[in-house]
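PROTEIN–LIGAND DATA SHEET

This sheet pairs a single protein chain with one bound small molecule, pyridoxal-5'-phosphate, given as SMILES. Inputs appear in the order they were entered. The predicted three-dimensional arrangement of chain and ligand is reported afterwards as a token string under its own label.
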Amino acid sequence: MVDLFTPVSSLPLCYNHPAMMDVLKNPVNWSTFVNRPALGMYPPGDWAQRLRSTLLAVAPAGHQQVITMGCGSCSVENGLKAMFMKFMRVRRGGAPYTQEEMDSSLRNQLPGSPNLSVLSFSNALHGRTMGCLALTHSKWQMKVDFPALDWPIADFPNLRYPLDEFKEENRKEEERCLAMVEDLILKGDQNGMAVAGIVVESIQAEGGDQFASANFFQGLRDITNKKGIGLLMDEVQTGCGVTGKFWAHEHFNLTDSPDVVTFSKKMLTGGFYNKDSFRPQESNRIFNTWVGDPSKVILLEAVVKEMTRSNLIGQVNVTGEHLLSELKNMQARYPSILHKARGLGTFCSVDFCDTETRDNTVNKLRQRGMNTGVCGTTTLRFRPALTFLPRHVDIFMGHFDAVLADVTK
Ligand SMILES: Cc1ncc(COP(=O)(O)O)c(C=O)c1O
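PREDICTION REPORTED AS:
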């Protein structure tokens, strides 16, 4: 098969890449695979060094703190906790917890369990654990039957494509959404449910590959700094080079980096970076049995080395440019079916006229050995490995053309 979706966007290099197979062949690594440590209590002697040569070597600007986790949801969930702790530390002026706070927290009561919220955006997906679900608004199947935290949801900009052609219109739409964010924060203050942070995807992925401009993200950074609240950029799907930069938010030239950056998928391990000021002050506050898995970090080490050795981010830019231009060609050939071809790096997508035609196309492609993914209601998305080449794009486009011709018959 030609895999343009990979295991839901989580394959950094190709299947069975020799650099990763070598990790398993090396006896020095065996005990890490066999004996999984409880990292929060008994980290291996070389753990700090492993983090330095992997996650910290590729850390977003402004970040020197990282903690690993199991999956994307777990990373966001704990990133939220880092924001809440920082918010409350500032609110109590650095004073220690009172006995009343400690006791009431055990009964889910005030003041130990404060009335705080995190603001998220319409159509977002940040995971399926109970906290993350309050930030997830893409599909009802993920939500129905589960009690939800009634936290504020702002509109994510609904932009017109191609983005360069509708700059003025899109700017107004983004300003509308930013005004809504400010309004919801104000309402939170007035209603005794302060917003402690904002969570946003660098590109809204599961919700249908929705882009917003650098201005929009700078606007969020300005609002959060002005209000003294956290900004968490969720890079679970956009991180690890897929957009042509290691972290997608690097495209936005933010004047001040996000406070928390979550990752998983192609990074092989989940986790999050946080600014020094968001570091928990006591042990055990961000904790679980394993707190990640060092065997994944050893594999990530091989990935990061291979990314540098083979200039894979450069490759993503070359392949991505070809993929997007071919998608635009297809859009020109099948204007009644395709529109909104868009992308950054190989993080590309195109929208269909309706869900049925899209799903039909995806099934027909799969029968031909072409694995693609979907998101939103009408979007076909591409999430190939970093090793994907222009010639793989050409193989796919031959099949895509044939299937679209068949679908339009
Ligand atoms: C942006 C984003 N955040 C969080 C998650 C949740 O990750 P996981 O499925 O590993 O829990 C996903 C999953 O698709 C995601 O795309």
